[in-house]
Amino acid sequence: MNGTTHDVRLRAEQLIGERRPFVTATVVRAQQPTSAHPGDTAIVFSDGTIEGFVGGQCAQNSVREAARGALDSGESVLLRVLPDGAPPFPKTSGADVVVNPCLSGGAMEIFLEPTLPAHVLSLYGDTPIADAVVEFARVLDLDVVRSSAAEAVTEDATAVIIASLGGEEALTIRAALDAGVQYIGLVASRVRGAAVLEQLELTDSERARVHTPVGMYIGAKTPAEIALSIVVDVVRAIRLDGVSVARNDPVATTALDPICGMTVTINADTPHLEDDGVDVWFCSPGCRHKYEKT
């Protein structure tokens, strides 16, 4: 493992601890005269910032675009970057093919692997059901945050489960709704759950976010079975309904290169010039030079 790869892995561990989403980009194939080599690695953020090396400026533009897609989908992708005029390459499942008109020649394959923060499950209550929820959630790599204070609802929670079987349940539901949590589960019978919700003035959209009785119906009776039904329904909501915490990642600003038509990410290093008071952005100094000559 070379020094750069080692540095990228250390940086990745730091970002995971900070709960910051990123993409690890690794060059797996590179043909001359590309400047990248197999094994070159970088970290790519949602705003287009790249830490590390996966090729020159032209290749980086393609990587930035594909990395944003990987972060949005949460799925890894193999990016094939071909120079303009290369023979057509069939698109296969899990692979994206882009023709980069400013690539100097050769082809590249870059594996993009997104890393997103683990889903956070905020859990309220000190009961056998709550204890069992913790055990199941941790097996599934959910980050569990336990609290007894309603006002401590975390804004980065994907789901809030109230398994206190009493106490300030209505207050906790309201705090979770105000924090923007999309999945809120109350452990209660239908009758008691309805009574708790009657204490709140809920809009239709807010009511849709509160699940009571919480959990997928499996005929659960024991605390462990009830906890299993709860965690199963949280996973269903995440995987099938798209429930997640709203990410406030910096969004990249992009522009269209008027020469080659590429979408470029605007940052401090992006070539540009001012034309009649309008900023014009380019994928490379070569395209900027062509624009200046027109």
Automatic annotation (TrEMBL):
<dbReference type="Pfam" id="PF13478">
    <property type="entry name" value="XdhC_C"/>
</dbReference>
<feature type="domain" description="XdhC Rossmann">
    <location>
        <begin position="122"/>
        <end position="232"/>
    </location>
</feature>
<dbReference type="InterPro" id="IPR052698">
    <property type="entry name" value="MoCofactor_Util/Proc"/>
</dbReference>
<dbReference type="InterPro" id="IPR027051">
    <property type="entry name" value="XdhC_Rossmann_dom"/>
</dbReference>
<protein>
    <submittedName>
        <fullName>XdhC family protein</fullName>
    </submittedName>
</protein>
<dbReference type="InterPro" id="IPR003777">
    <property type="entry name" value="XdhC_CoxI"/>
</dbReference>
<dbReference type="Pfam" id="PF02625">
    <property type="entry name" value="XdhC_CoxI"/>
</dbReference>
<feature type="domain" description="XdhC- CoxI">
    <location>
        <begin position="17"/>
        <end position="80"/>
    </location>
</feature>
